[in-house]
Design brief:
This protein is mostly helical. It has helices at residues 5-11, 25-53, 58-94, 96-107. The protein is built from four helices and no strands.
Length: 126
Amino acid sequence: MHDSPANASAHTTPVPRVRRRVRSGVEARGRRRKVWTCGLLIVSTVLMVNALIGEKGYLANLQARREFQDVSESLRQLKADNARLADEARRLRNDPQTLEDAARQQLGLVKPGETLITLRDRPAAR
């Protein structure tokens, strides 16, 4: 009993063909509408998430605004310090009394004939 290919096909059961169901125009339109709706929903979700947390999103914009405010405040403070120091430098160049006061305070200089007295606090009693 030798099975030949011709005999093998005679013994096998035929594979049933899968028939595709033919959709009506209304069903096809409804399916297309569902696919488009799901696609648009996914795209909208991705765009909204990107707008919220993306590189140029809302949260990044808030962070940039905070940094800008901090830097602006720092700049304002530096400009005020710069103006104060420029005024002090002008007074030291042009006002002899200011120059003398600075020399006495910072360098401990005294005029001839003056005596410098330094007072120190007593240590606290025990």
